[in-house]
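Q: What would this chain look like folded?
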Amino acid sequence: MTPKSLKYFIALSKECHFGRAAEVCNISQPTLSSAIKQLETEFNVPLVRRGQKFQGFTPEGKKVLEWSERIIADTDAMRQEVSKLSKILTGRLRLGAIPTALSILPYLTAPFYESSPSVFINVSSMSSSEIQKALDNFEIDMGITYLDNEPLKRVISTHLYNESYSLLVADTSPFLGQKTISWKEAVSIPLGLLSKDMQNRRIIDTAFAKAGVVAKPSFETNSMASLIPHVTTGYWSAVVPRHIALGSILPAGLSLIKLIEPNIVYKVGAIISDREPQPPTAKAMLGIIKKLGRDKFFKRLIDR
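A: My prediction, written as structure tokens:
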């Protein structure tokens, strides 16, 4: 059994196809198949259910997969810990973030890169449930997600900022020029919203319900990058986090109107798995976050 064979096994679990798994691992399919068969020989049990194509794992295979993910994650953490002894942190930092937090991430990754330029940073847009699953499966090192709306399990959390909401409108909107708008008023116009698999959408639906109305959007997407351009057409408005205006995300001709009645605020923060040892890259990012938090950086950023 080698780390490579365990990585091949993990790749097969993600791709559910021997050919695609081999391609991801940059090896031939016979090489991957041989490595899997060698694992089965070592454990003396079938690990993969085979037919004309991959059909899943046996119960023993599922258990081997669970340990493989843990072993590979711990091996990466070990390499990172050793690299720290030379005062140069190396390795990778895998971040999973809810779509509404993506505009905040550069304010984390930039100071992290400044302090640890030898670490490779990977950012993935995920739903909150995907972040929980990815942490449990050792697929990411840290998540940026909601802290107080739906239960989080087996994690350590650090608060970053409070998310409040605005109506994003085009310059053709009948509400253009208003400073505030009620959730009940907002439901009267065509809306584009994030899809229901996103926790942000569930938060928004709850806010409309508190106002005594039901939102019936005529456009849905799981991407903020897709939602905003649709508002520029003038056909839709959208409920978005207030901080979406950070940086250069908003195109010309769009405005934000604060949503009130009710005033909705949710906490967003960083989460890591509640296990030891922690990936040193994740611990280093937590150090950056704590420093920014002590300086009240995010409150100033969101409130400006």
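The two ends are 55 Å apart (CA to CA).
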